[in-house]
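Cross-check.
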Amino acid sequence: MDATNDLPDAHHPRAPIDVKGGVWVTVAVLLGFGMMYATSAPGWHYAWFMLVGPGWLFFGAGWLIVLGVLLVMPGRLVALRRNWPFWAVPPLIVVLVASLVYVGAPVKMRFELSRADLDHFAKTMSEGTPPGKRNWIGLYPVEYLEGSPSAFSFMIDDTGFFTSYGLAWVPNSELIPTWCRRS
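Predicted model, tokenized:
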């Protein structure tokens, strides 16, 4: 019978401390996608923005608190050094998302992905086909639609706070789309 299994083992080092950096990266990526969607329409999707905005604030405060604790607690600095990529990525995601939103990339990307559907819809309207009930044009959920054979405009569902925002589109034109607003 071996009684040494019950004694504390000084020869084996303690298990390394896991700082769960992957969770921070995952949350930052999810918040980044949420912010990109919230800002991908003229006037922004206000409800999404009101969910994601505070999420970024809580995420940032939590990330700073946990990082501060890891920096001052003994033994945790080794784990932080070992997992530094996980702790460096969230601030990089924040900077990337903020830069993309600042230059308007989400709005431009959503518009370009919807351009073929906008052109097709404009063509059918120019042929005299009534617009009918539309729920979506490309990647845009339609709230209100009006048009003529030469152009059409529509309001995007759930944009703005007290006003609705949308697009006015003239087919086969070299003009950039015009954002329109309705109070």
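Residues 46-72 form the longest helix (27 residues). The helical segments are 21-38, 46-72, 76-82, 84-103, 105-126. Passed to J.P. for a second look.
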